[in-house]
Amino acid sequence: MPKNEFHQPVSVDSAPRGSRCEWCGEPAERQLTAIGGLYHNDGGLFCRPCGEKFIQAVLNSLQFPGQLGLGAR
After folding, report:
1. What's the rounded Cα separation, in Å, for the pair 22 and 2?
2. How much of the chain is helix, strand and coil, in % rounded to 5?
3. Taking the domains of the chain in order of start, what are their residue ranges?
4. 44, 32 contact by CB (below 8 A)
5. Rounded distance, CA 66 to CA 15, Å?
6. Where does the source fall among the domains of life (predicted)?
7. CA dist 29 to 17, 50, 59, 69, Å?
8. Which residue has the higher pLDDT, 63 or 5?
9. Range 8-16 contact pairs with CB under 8 angstroms and sequence separation of 24 or more
10. Confidence at residue 65, expressed as pLDDT on a 0 to 100 scale
11. Residues 22-61 pLDDT 10s
12. CA-to-CA distance for 70 and 73, rounded, in angstroms?
């Protein structure tokens, strides 16, 4: 099966203008939603650095279920 945007673990959209990162309060750039796995449908508005941490936590949960997660901010 070919790889494409429909087989990604996180959905990425633009954040609404004026929104703030849910983790640090800086201006948000992206709205991220986990697709599948332990954090299915979890997500929120994130600045770039926090968004990268969120994506890494989702990827870790898919590779090591039950061991690593979103608590590692």
Report:
1. 34
2. 25, 20, 50
3. 10-63
4. yes
5. 29
6. Bacteria
7. 9, 10, 20, 22
8. 63
9. 8/35, 9/34, 9/35, 9/36, 9/37, 9/55, 9/58, 9/59, 9/62, 10/34, 10/35, 10/43, 10/54, 10/55, 10/58, 11/35, 11/43, 15/45, 15/46, 16/45
10. 58
11. 999 999 999 999 987 777 788 999 999 999 999 998 888 8
12. 7
Q: End-to-end CA distance of the chain, in Å?
A: 34
Q: Is the separation of the CB atoms in 34 and 41 below 8 Å?
A: yes
Q: Return the residue matching tokens 């849910």.
A: 22
Burial class (CB in 10 A: 0-12, 13-18, 19+), 69: middle
